[in-house]
Each structure stands twice: as structure tokens, then as C-alpha cells.
Specification:
Blueprint lengths: L7 E7 L2 E8 L6 E5 L12 H5 L4 E5 L19 H14 L5 E5 L3 H11 L4 E6 L12 H10 L3 H6 L6 H9 L9 H11 L4 H29 L3 E6 L8 H4 L9 E5 L6 H19 L1
Parallel strand pairs: 3-4, 3-5, 5-6, 6-7, 7-8
Antiparallel strand pairs: 1-2, 2-4
Helix pairs in contact: 2-3, 3-8, 6-7
Amino acid sequence: MENSFKVSYHKIEIKGINIFYRTAGDNNKQPIILLHGFPSASHMFRDLIPLLKDKFYLIAPDYPGFGQSDSPDRKEFEYSFLNISYIIEDFINILAIQRFALYVFDYGAPIGFYIAMRNPEKITAIISQNGNIYREGLGTKWTAREKYWENPTPELRKSYEIAFAPETIIGQYTEGTDKTLVSPDGYTLDISYMSRPGIDEIQSDFIYDYRNNIKSYPDFQKYIREYQPPLLAVWGKNDVSFIPAGAESFKKDLPKVEIHLIDSGHFALETHSYEIGLLIIDFLERNL
């Protein structure tokens, strides 16, 4: 029980791949699986986990190709969101987590919703923090990317490597929020992760594969419309990637959705982890 009050760090092998994860809290309490986004890893939850660990059991994995998890060769592993969702589903099953809430952010949204569609009986609630599943929630940058998906030339693929550049990563953290509140620790670590050999090609695979997530949006929407999971949409309202219309669109399929727009950008946890933590505690205590 003593260790349940501390954050601990582990690796577990899944299909020959070492998956890193951090965890905290009493495993007899409600589990929450925390799914990170791009270009980050589970370290993005470093401020949120301590706020929630006394009330919930927190588990935050790094996906293959991210953070401290292995990055298998592209010739031997398919870097697609659907494939990552199967790895994370295996991860959840190996840890013997029977029913759980999902925290989905950015890339974590399609991964989480693929898992939820396959396991609706296991999902107790969903917290979506800038985790989009509606076309209305796509910012203007996605128009250019859709043109790339329609005509995926090597030149266009190369051009999108700008997404991994240090200045782009810093911008993802600082745009739309008070820059004086953003610690450089998070984006400095992400810049380091993104600069490792071979990661540019892995991440380019994800950029190209994102087209399949958008094709799956109607399936994600059908899932929530049919199963009506309790859902909290807490959104950095100044995010240019996934705009507030994505949060508001949940109302079409979930009349009881709770929506809170935070005066921050994409990485809202960097500046508003305390506020978001309180919203999660209140929401889950009322809905579980």
C-alpha cells in the first residue's frame, strides 16, 4: 500500500517490444489509462498523476516509437494508429485491468477510441483533452495534409518533417497560452526523443496514416452514440490543431457530455493540470 502513493516506472514486453509505463495509485481503485499525444510520451502526465493518484489507479504507457518504449524497425513493425491500439489493448490485458476510464489526447484519441469500440463493456468513462473525433474539430492545417494524403509524393512526405523540428515542437507547447507558465522541460525532452535516429521516418508514417483515423471518425461517433459512455471534454480552446468545435461536436452524439474550454493551447496540461485534475475528479466521482 505504501508504494501506491508513489509514481513508479516499469517496462513490459509485448510481442517482443518493450513498452515503458508509469503508474501510481491503489490498483483496487478505478483505473484510468492515460494515452499521450504527439510528439510527447507519458511524461506529459507528470503533473496530473500526482493530483489523481490518491483517488484512482493511473497507468500511462509510451507507444512504440515514442518516449522510453522500443522503436522497432519499420520493416518489422507497422506504425499505424490501429496497430498501436492493438499493442495498447494487449498491454491493458496483460496488466489484467478489467474495466477502466480513458484519458485521450491528440494521437491518443484514435488509439483510445479504437480500443473502446472493440471493448465497449470495459469502458467506464472517457476524458477527452483535445482528443478529436469530428471533422469540425480539425484546424486549418489539416486541409494541406489531406492534399498530401491524396497525393503522397516523397517530396511532400519530406516536407512534413518540419513537424519534428525543435521550433515546431516548442510552438506546440507555447502557442495559445501564457508562455511564462510553460516549463521548458517537456518540450526539451520531446525534442530529444524526436531527434533520435530513424524517428523521423517512424513519425512520417504516423502523419500519413492519420488519414485512416479521419475515415474512422464515423465509427467512433457511432460507438459513443450507441453506448453513451460518460464523457468529459476538457479542451485547450486556443489549440490550432484540434479546435473547440471538436469538443462542441460531442453534443451531437452525447447529449449528456460535459464540456469545459480552458484558456490554453494544445498541451493544456502544461499550464492547467490543477484545474483539469479537479474537473476529472468531480466528473468521475459523479459518474462512476
